[in-house]
# Entry
Amino acid sequence: MSLNLDARTFRELLADPALAETLSATAGSPLITIEVPDAAEGRWLEGLDNTAVPAVVVIVAADPACLPLTAACAADVILTQDGIAATPFVAPPGGLAAAIAQLDARLAANPVAGTALALHLRSSADLNVPAGLIAESAAYSALQDGAEFHRWRASRPDREPDADTRRVKVERSPGELRITLTRPGRRNAIDWRMRDALSEALAAAVATPGVRVLLLGDGPDFCAGGDLDEFGSRPDPALAHLIRLTRSPAMLIHRLRDRATAFLHGACLGAGIELPAFAGRVHATADTRIGLPEIALGLMPGAGGTVSLRQRIGRWRTAFVALTGDSISAQQALQWGLIDVIDDGAATVGSTAG
# Structure
């Protein structure tokens, strides 16, 4: 259940170590909502540090002017009725009450994963990209050994393995390297074969100074995320953490960012947005759908999204997308800066490459 507080009460609870323990997912309060109806209430949050609060803190400010950014630092998500693009707040299309109810339901189902995401986004804000990826991978691996993820995995039916081993197509031309995900039958879901092939292609690009890199996806979707059939299949999450760091498409795209362009279309979920968001330029067709569904699996983004999305849209909007699990449109992504241009020619680029 959510814990609804006014700003002054929240501040007083944080100041009293004996009471602060109630602000916790382990105490049955994974979501804390704070109403800020006016600037006077907002001032109670100024300079407040909620780093140690093991719960998701949502501030509801009907008017963005009521909440200066110095006070907004106390929140993981900031909801407002006003969709002013100049602020990093979120104006949910269904309204404030619906958004809070959705967050409450999602966190009631997976309080550990949601809280882990919030804590990671708070604590990693000042880390550089390599350090952020290490911290994200460690948190992700910890969740892989948690009850929420094991419950989700037990609910998954077995599926026939994919006999086709083709994963990535690489085309070279003078000054350009086109890397296309080629698993359209599985919506270009990333399994270990694709991760390794993608890493190999990107590493070759890093070793070739000046070459322009295009990231594409074959079929109706750019990439629907990680291959769900492989999630949790490694028996040792700690070892998986190290493997994830040694074969990291996220780190390689980051190193190529000044000469990498991603062309998105269709579904771009999980890794399907986490990886291309590292590129210096992101094109998307108008029908592109973007989302981070990992919380519903008892996990958090693990392909670099807490770093790449945070760099582009800030931690408040990154947390909102991940915690709700809803997909956002290309238009919304453009307004926030998650993509750089809506270009229906991106579909043509992708189809001709496949």
